[in-house]
Amino acid sequence: MTAVLVHGNPETPAIWGPLVERLERDDVVTPQLPGFGVPAPAGFGATKEEYTAWLVGELEAIGEPVDLVGHDWGGGFVLRVACTRPDLIRSWVSDVAGLLHPDYVWHDFAQIWQSDAGERWVTDTAAQPVAERAALLEAVGVVGGVATDVASAMDAEMGRCILALYRSAAQPAMAEWGRDAESASARPGLVLAGTDDPFTGGTGFAEVMASRMSADFQALEGLGHWWMLGDPDRGARALTEFWASV
C-alpha cells in the first residue's frame, strides 16, 4: 500500500522531508506539482482542474489504491480526488477542508494573486535573492532547513502557475467544489487543522466540512500552516494512528 503525499504552494516536496523520516513505512511517494520546481508539460494551463487531472494520472500510474495525503493546494486536489475518484484511494487526509466551506474567503496573498497585482508580485519575488526569499518563508513557518530548497524553486514558471491556479479558484469556484463534499465519505478521511493556520478559514470551517465528509477531525493545537515542519513528530503520529484505524 503506497502513501502519496502531495505538497502545495509555493512549495516543493521538500516540505515533507522531516515528516517522512518519522513515518514507519518505506512506501512513501512525494510527487512534484508541474511548474513547482519542475517543468510543466507543454500547454499546461495550471488550473485547479488540470492539477486534479495530473494527480489522477499519477495515482492511476501507481495501479492500486493509495493512502493519499495533501497539504495546502495538494490538500485541495486530494479532496477533489476523494470526491470524484474514490476508486484510486484507500484513505485520504487534507489540511485545507475549510476552503470548501460556502463562506470561505480567500486569504490576502490569494487575493493579490487573483488580481492585477499578481504579475507584479511574481516579478518582484523572482528578482529577490534566494536568501531573502528563504528568510521570508522561514518567517511564516517553513522551518527545519527547508526554506532554501523551496525558495530556490520560486521562479517565473512557478509564478505563472500560481497566478493561473488561484485565478481558476476565485470564488465561487471553491464553494462549487464544496457542493460535492459528501462524496468524499466513500473512503475513510481525516481532516487536519492547525489552530494557528491563518490561510484556511479556521478550525470551525474545517470541522464543519469534516462532518459533511464523514471524516475524522483533528485540531493541531499550536501549529500553523506548515504543521509537518513545526512538529513533524506529531504530524507523523496523527497520520500513523489514522492509517492504523482504516
Structure commentary:
The protein has 246 residues and is of the alpha/beta class. The protein has one domain (3-105, 172-245): Rossmann fold (3-Layer(aba) Sandwich). The protein has twelve helices and six strands. Helix 1 links the parallel strand 1 (3-6) and strand 2. Helix 2 packs across helix 3 and helix 5 runs antiparallel to helix 8 (156-168). It is globular. The protein starts with a strand and ends with a helix. The mean pLDDT is 97.
How would you describe this structure in keywords?
246 residues; Rossmann fold; 6-stranded parallel β-sheet
At the fold tier of CATH, the topology name is: Rossmann fold
Radius of gyration over C-alpha positions, nearest whole angstrom? 17 Å
Shape: globular
Determine the CATH superfamily.
Alpha/Beta hydrolase fold, catalytic domain
Approximately how much beta-strand content do the residues carry?
A: 5-15%
Number of strands: 6
Helix/strand/pairing class, anyone?
alpha/beta
Name the average pLDDT: 97
- What order do the helices and strands follow? EHEHEHEHHHHHHEHEHH
Number of helices: 12
The proportion of residues forming helix, as a percent range, comes to 40-55%
- Under the CATH scheme, the architecture is 3-Layer(aba) Sandwich
Any idea of the CATH class?
Alpha Beta
Largest sheet: 6 strands, parallel
| Distance between the amino and carboxyl termini | 12 Å
Q: Spans of 5+ residues with little confidence (pLDDT < 50)?
A: none
Structural domains: how many: 1
**Strands in their spatial order, largest beta sheet:** 2-1-3-4-5-6
